[in-house]
Design goal:
This protein is mainly beta. The protein is built from one helix and eight strands.
Length: 101
């Protein structure tokens, strides 16, 4: 059984999200070579996503590291905070979008 953690994302002062690692169902790269998407299910069963901007050629590393954090992370882990320029995984440059609905 994986450890339980929350992955924290902040795109703006009024746009932030902390996702329970148990609710993440996919971490995938996009074909444009500069984004990684974290897919999850909200408490109501709706499919949501966070789209991250990543450095070119860093997609695979970001997907692997986020996957590792989901399996072994503990507590709250800041993945990307655009407001304070804090990025917890090498290669993440920012958040393109947090899809809430």
């Amino acid at each position: 059984m994986a450890n339980r953690c929350f992955l924290y994302f902040q795109d703006a002062a009024n746009d932030q999200l902390s996702v329970d690692s148990d609710r993440i169902n996919a971490i995938r790269s996009e074909t444009d070579t500069s984004t990684v998407v974290v897919d999850f299910v909200d408490a109501a069963g709706g499919f949501k996503k966070v789209t991250l901007s990543v450095a070119v050629a860093k997609q695979a590393n970001v997907v692997k590291e986020l996957s590792r954090l989901v399996l072994s992370g503990v507590g709250v882990i800041t993945v990307a905070d655009d407001v304070n320029s804090v990025f917890g995984v090498d290669g993440i440059d920012g958040i393109d979008a947090i899809t809430h609905s």
